[in-house]
């Protein structure tokens, strides 16, 4: 054999024959409710020379010694479960290692990582749905996802979507067409309105009708574990909190091993055929960041809650599900994993787009509170006016239905500097805004 056998940590749960995709089976993750504990239980991959970090398998292709080995690999008899790799658009050991961590994080049997969040979403929906199928989706989802469901999938694949208010369970139930609807799709905490999904109840409704539940957990890694609450598939834009550096585009599909394996099928697999492949060097970088995701999330959440409370005290219209008077506060409290908080995203409704941009400009250029930029999960605070940026794919009526007002400023609260230093910067910009409007 030409492949290298990596050193495994002694006493690792993976000493027995391991199935690379079925992380849960061998790591007892099904009994581990806290994602931090599940991550710590994951197999630790050491470097080829005993390094505490794994080696990067940068090869696009892999050698074999015997011709029949290659034939058996293409016939599906030998695969990554036995350390046989064909080609890195299929499985790659370094990407697979990050994928195992993602499966542990989300408590799913398996996972695989992709080049972006959008490619994860498109790929899994195309794997589950065929031409003529139907989805039911939350009317408040990320603008790119909304465009995919509204325009791209109907035009290219004849896959249609009915949008619903996921807080209206009867509406969700009515929208499901038995036999035709294949997926119920929503975000745990929605972009940008921060509506919280009742994951257990929505899963019950969908599963009663034989519909799979796909949840985008981009806004709430660690805080909420949708698969532990019943969801079949969890997708991520790793680009955001999981990366934390605003320097990488990446995504993941976490779900049953059978589904993840099917994504790699040589004839029918969406990932294998469309090829939104994650670079192994990127996978390595990201697997170095997952161990401190929990710590980062706690600080994002801690600061967001304090800022939200203080902003509210100043009379601003704040939307933050950690506030007692947020309509979804109790629900979020009931589904969060203990000790992380209520999310690092908050919204300020400034009434008009003009006022929203004025505030953001002062916060960036006058008081250095944060940066005017889309995306989220960065260590600096990022601010954007959703209606004219990340939700601009939606028309005015769709934005109104989704509750996205023109003056909505979405903030991804960062953790650099001290909390009081940052708060003083916020107050300084706000005073200037008020002075300017007098
Ligand atoms: C909730 C959510 N899902 C998916 C995406 C798409 O992810 P990516 O930009 O990594 O393709 C985004 C991007 O903003 C998002 O906010």
UniProtKB/TrEMBL annotation:
Domain of life: Eukaryota
Pfam family, one: Cys_Met_Meta_PP
Gene Ontology terms, MF aspect: catalytic activity
Cited Gene3D superfamilies: Aspartate Aminotransferase, domain 1, Type I PLP-dependent aspartate aminotransferase-like (Major domain)
Region spans: Disordered: 1-35
Cofactor(s) annotated in UniProt: pyridoxal 5'-phosphate
Residues recorded as bearing N6-(pyridoxal phosphate)lysine in the entry: 240
Signal sequence coordinates: none
Residue stretches of biased makeup (Basic residues): 1-10
Keywords: Pyridoxal phosphate
Family note: Belongs to the trans-sulfuration enzymes family.
Stated name of the protein: Methionine gamma-lyase
Organism: Castilleja foliolosa
